[in-house]
Amino acid sequence: MEDEFIYLEDLKDERTVQFIKEETERTKLLLGKRADELYPKLLEILYEPRVLQLFAFDENTPVMLIYGKKRSVNLGRKELYAAQSDEVIQYIWKIRGFRELGISVGKKGSDEVRTFILSEEGRVIRDLGNWVSQPFYHGNEVCYVKSYRTSPPPDGGEYPTYRVFCGDDIVYGKELKPGEFISIDVFGDVITLVKTKGWRYSELYVGESFDKLRKVDEAELIGVVDYKDYIIYRKNDNVILNGVTLGFEKPINAVASGRDFIAISLIKDYRTPVEYYDLSGKKIGEEPHDNVIMMDGGGSSLFLLETSFSFISKVTRRRIEGGVLTNSETIIETGKYEVGVKDIYIKGDVLLHGFLLYKHEKSKGVIVYGYGVFVFLYYLFHRTTLRSYWRMDTPFLSLT
User: Fold this and answer.
1) Residue 369 has what pLDDT?
2) Is residue 73 within 8 Å of residue 80, measured between CB atoms?
3) Is there a contact between 265 and 289 (Cβ–Cβ < 8 Å)?
4) How far apart are CA 11 and CA 8, in angstroms?
5) 297 exposure class (CB count in 10 Å sphere: 0-12, 13-18, 19+)
6) C-beta neighbour count of 22 within 10 angstroms
7) Three-state secondary-structure class, residue 69
8) Cα separations (Å) of 69 from 56, 64, 85?
């Protein structure tokens, strides 16, 4: 089926320019003077720095994708790459075993994305081209996954689909069909590959070459966490390690591992606490967290990205040694505010949970219901738009 609005992907197309002009005029007509009042405030919100992604570069330093007025990739507190005015940094990639990283960059007004390999100084080592993801090294060669969306791959077959390249050669993917996706992680000589069919079925493969991959497991959801002398992976709401299955009644939010620990964030009591286990599966600790976005481990360190009603984003480094959390360091925290938060419950046919947010005890506050609301409500709660609701003595209910 042809998309009649495909031209909107081109910001220079006359029809796109006209569409934006008409929608801007319609917005001003509906909001009146409020449109001009709100616009600079909305820009201020948009440009507020926030960390979108991270991974452990080594035991001491994370790589972070930071969005704000300036969009950049940082190695710890050092900026490695800053987006040009016409660029959008889409994703950052961990390259295990090398002091390098991958970065995917798109152009505004275009759906094409190029992927590069950067050194730890920020120098471009390789340009891997368009529609490339998941760069890694295997057998002393640069490898990556390439997407074929609008044309068949060089070795034929249906599309849209994916192929794995090492050097100039296709090493995997000819049997892939549309609707099947692959995720690859390489640990030294060991390749792990998860093939997902649609959204509800995954297969895990392990091997030392792409022509000798063996199927290890299958489930609705599988995600590789680490490889030591054995593979550690998430299987639905379980974590499998060396013959031990850690099973949870609550949904798993995120999993990471370090030298001698596993960290598991659960969705529990409307928040995302992190539980720590040693490699034998023994629980060694637990921490409360409002909303963990992602985690990654390196050596004895766990790097954790989270958000809350009281800040936009925070990255911390936790050190776990000998089964003990020895210290915690905040690497970056953005948008910190003081706000009161209370749990509230609405009893009916189904018990509903919400958060009551308030600036002070006499404030009518804001009721928030649902998941995924921390960043959204931060913007509403701390900005003039919501304050205008308070001046009208009108509580705000957000359904997400």
Assistant:
1) 65
2) yes
3) yes
4) 7
5) buried
6) 10
7) coil
8) 25, 16, 10
Per-position b or e across 313-330, b if 16+ CB within 10 A of its CB: bbbbbbbbeebebeeeee
Tokens 């074929």 sit at which residue?
148
Peptide bond into 160 cis (omega under 30): yes
Question: What integer pLDDT is reported at residue 6 of this predicted model?
Answer: 85
CB atoms within 10 A of CB 33: 8
Residue that wins the pLDDT comparison between 67 and 354: 67
Contacting residues for 52 by C-beta, under 8 A, at least 6 apart: 65, 66, 67
Distance CA 34, CA 263 (A): 47
Among 226, 211, 260, 213, smallest CA distance to 96 is for 226
| Structure letter (DSSP) for residue 59 | S
User: Measured over all CA atoms, what is the biggest interatomic distance in the chain, rounded to whole angstroms?
Assistant: 68
The pTM assigned to this predicted structure is 0.84
What span, in angstroms and rounded, lies between the C-alpha atoms of 199 and 276?
28
CATH number listed for the domain at residues 52-334: 2.130.10.120
Residues 6+ positions from 172 with CB-CB distance below 8 Å: 163, 164, 182, 193, 210, 213
CB 355 within 8 A of CB 309: yes
Structure token pair of residue 25: 């005029």
Kindly list the domain boundaries of the chain, sorted by start residue. Answer: 52-334, 337-400
**Phi, psi dihedrals of residue 249, rounded to the nearest 5°:** -75, -30
The span from the CA of 89 to the CA of 79, in Å, is 14
364 confidence band (pLDDT: 50, 70, 90): low
